[in-house]
Design goal:
The protein has 12 helices and 4 strands, in the order H-H-E-H-H-H-H-H-H-E-E-E-H-H-H-H. Helix 4 packs antiparallel against helix 5 and helix 5 crosses helix 9.
């Protein structure tokens, strides 16, 4: 792992954390007139939050490469803290009849998402330790994307079943971001909605840790992921691109930007092509079936 990369990410997580809380707490307080200004506010907030989340995940991944025991500590500590935080509304007696103040609710959502990310990154970086050689990323990355699609799009997939049968559980396992409300008022605030699942952070952290450990194109991949996710989100909203889990474009960008760094043997190349072909076929079949 490059020492320059480690030094660059060292302590950066604190700055990204501050940016995260500023966005999550500050954005809902902004009131904008409906129309292009409100749409622009949503897009700008999404843009900034996306950059912040990528920066935070990569910074945390860099820290886990610098401090070897940190990944399992983040996983265990994050899960315990997240479970305790989920129990807080019950302990405080929050309900529709007795809701928290707007500020308290905002703080609760922001901390909830932060702890969820902490646990997910801990899991992803812990799993990354199983990858001992950079060439293994070629089959692992598309395989992870296929697993994510299976859990989300398959009729009997775990995520799909949870969203249909227990949507409140799915909401607790997702990060809240800002969106424009549907109410007919002349002006409106950005409304927090749960949209980014924990699985996205798990695999993103796995990718980030491996990129840092093997000295691959970390900065270029971060920028590429940001641009690709932003463009992909816009194409989906316009109805141009297929609505697939975010891990699919993430996998494509990560492999494409680092492809020249892999030196595959003949057997590794054949196995990788086979895995990629199966992943593409499964994703296409699930999408066509669900269309």
């Amino acid at each position: 792992m490059s020492q320059a990369v480690v030094n660059a990410t060292n302590r950066a997580w604190l700055l990204w954390s501050v940016a995260y809380f500023v966005l999550q707490l500050g954005a809902p307080l902004v009131t904008l007139p409906r129309g292009w200004l409100l749409l622009g506010g949503v897009l700008l907030t999404t843009l900034l939050l996306m950059a912040t989340l990528l920066g935070l995940v990569f910074a945390w991944a860099g820290e886990t490469e610098r401090v070897k025991w940190l990944a399992p500590a983040m996983l265990i500590g994050g899960i315990v803290a997240w479970l305790g935080w989920n129990a807080l509304p019950t302990l405080l007696g929050w309900s529709r009849a007795n809701p928290p103040t707007e500020l308290v609710a905002g703080i609760y959502r922001a901390v909830h998402g932060y702890l969820l990310m902490l646990a997910a990154v801990g899991l992803g970086t812990t799993l990354s330790k199983l990858i001992r050689e950079k060439n293994l990323l070629v089959p692992v990355i598309p395989f992870a994307a296929m697993v994510d699609v299976l859990t989300v799009l398959a009729p009997s997939g775990f995520v799909k079943q949870v969203m249909e049968k227990a949507p409140e559980v799915a909401e607790r396992a997702a990060l809240a971001v800002m969106a424009a409300p549907n109410a007919p008022e002349v002006s409106a605030r950005l409304t927090p909605i749960a949209i980014i699942g924990a699985g996205d952070f798990v695999f993103l952290a796995l990718y980030a840790a491996c990129l840092i450990r093997f000295g691959l194109r970390v900065r270029a991949t971060m920028i590429g992921l940001f641009l690709a996710l932003w463009i992909y989100l816009g194409l989906v909203l316009l109805g141009i691109a297929l609505r697939l889990p975010a891990l699919v474009p993430m996998a494509i960008v990560t492999l494409a930007l680092n492809w020249r760094s892999f030196q595959l043997s003949r057997q590794e190349a054949i196995a990788s092509v086979l895995v990629i072909s199966i992943a593409v076929a499964v994703i296409a079949w699930l999408f066509v079936r669900g269309a």
